[in-house]
Amino acid sequence: MSNYHIKGLEEYFQVYRKSVDNPEQFWEEIAEENFVWRKRWDEVLKWNKESHKVKWFDGAKLNITENCIDRHLYTNPDKTAILFEPNDPDESAQHITYKELHERVCKFANVLKDKGVKKGDRVCIYLPMIPELAISLLACARIGAVHSVVFAGFSATALRTRINDASCKMVITSDGSYRGAKTIDLKPIVDEALLDTPSITSVLVVKRIRSSVKMVADRDYWLQPLLEQASTDCPATIMNAEDELFILYTSGSTGMPKGMVHTTGGYMVYAAYTFKNVFQYRDQDIYWCSADIGWITGHSYIVYGPLANGATTLMYEGVPTYPDWGRFWSIIEKHQVTQFYTAPTAIRALAKEKLDFVEKYDLSSLKILGTVGEPINEEAWHWYNDNIGKKKSPIVDTWWQTETGGIMISPIPYATPTIPTFATLPLPGIQPALMDENGEELKGNQVEGRLTIKHPWPSMARTIWGNHKRYVETYFSAYKDKYFTGDGALRDATGFYRITGRVDDVIIVSGHNLGTAPIEDAINEHPAVAESAIVGFPHDIKGNALYGYVILKETGEGRDHDNLRKEINQIITERVGPIAKLDKIQFTEGLPKTRSGKIMRRILRKIASGETSKLGDISTLLNPEVVEKIIDNTIKS
Ligand code: WT7
Hints:
single chain, 2 domains, seven-stranded mixed β-sheet, 24% strand, globular, binds 5'-O-[(S)-butoxy(hydroxy)phosphoryl]adenosine
């Protein structure tokens, strides 16, 4: 039996039992047998339940890039590490071998050093899905700089907030990006963000779309010429297991996005372990995750998890719809992809189109399919299973979060049975508990409650950058000694888990995690707006779409509501990004509030979803009369 690679259900149960009975011994064995450490740990787990500080493999020394790159140079230097498929199907794919990756990461790391980046400094990465994105993460890790990737669809304001929160020293960006038939300028967005970012000393710019950009003297540098002069020799900086590897921002129910901090050793062990098992990765496989590296999925399952296993990981620059709706399937055929990992929202969008787009391609290389980011509905699951997997590829519905660093609940192919809409069983080392409204754990099966995790796991976020208090409040104050996920879940009669969705004010739109607060703040900046509230409502493709209730300062006749709606979405695009635009905007004279003045989003959610018969008791509201008015003016289509 191997703890590292689980191959059957019985083995899963044995390994799982071991991981719960003795978590420290379990993770110690995995860490010892499958990674390169420069020095061994003094202690496997330190868990301080008062301060909520957790340390894994404390005292150990390593560099994650030695595990992701250098060690494969001895065994497989010419194997493709990163397979890059460009946006334009006529541009050739790039096969970056482990040897080449090593050289490119070392050169890039030397450029960072040359520009003054040191161990512990934060580097903001704002790049499209081109090889330089993956390489820049690894280059930071090579020298112990902490990367903070900001998804390149975010606006200048969102970028600035994140740069300032982590006091980044440098930004790595490109002139622009290709997305389908469009080219998007990125450098001007960075320039706007940098109008007020005192910590930034330099900007590295990758040339991709060859647009003409403005370069600020003594701040902005084209990357390519610097790389040409850089040495390919860059010894890895030896890090402590608990040194920060990266910061990645995620939305909260309220306030600023939270800079989740992930550290080196535990994150590496867990990302690699879960990649191996959930995707049953074997040497000759071509693995493809279609997420963007701007999200945690890309960090853990495009870059670190696959590379730590010496895998070939495919990176696709473009969109699923270019040049037509068959692009994903054409890439699978072209590169003989064996594992394909994507989001339910993409599946729903592709399932709407004619099957001709799928049937044109030979998908017989596929062995395993995956989904992540939001619940997958039964219809989409079956479409994926029937038409893409041809009923022979198990679908792994993987539940996890930016905060968890790696997949937490998921089937293990060929071991766990798959059931549509069920993430099924916890992976080894993960101890879920469902809680009721009174804070009691729901024991036994056939129960539904709030999902928590009872015991630390190696890749859990250690803190929120600069705000440990908020970390404790957000994740550890609802239930004693348990990590609260913010999700609801049920456990069925056989003990399988189904995630039922967020129980807080986070809304998942097309797999993107959006907090209501920053969007409402953006809307409220419109001079005509007095107050606003955002809720999610079910949407065929996006899973959820956003519905905004807006109170205007002056109502009066003659206001051009359509124009106001456009302006509101424009502000949201500028402040947060286009992914946060509202599908429906209803102007209203009031919002239902509790007597303490809190907006009752639960009621607004029901109204937006057309469930007006299920509002429950509204008599305790401060202003029950507004509910009727809101219902009368609901926007239906
Ligand atoms: C939230 C975390 C994990 C990487 C991408 C999202 C929802 C995630 C599933 C799933 C149902 C899911 C949860 C979670 N979610 N995966 N398989 N089934 N819901 O990371 O942006 O941090 O969002 O996504 O609500 O809390 P994230």
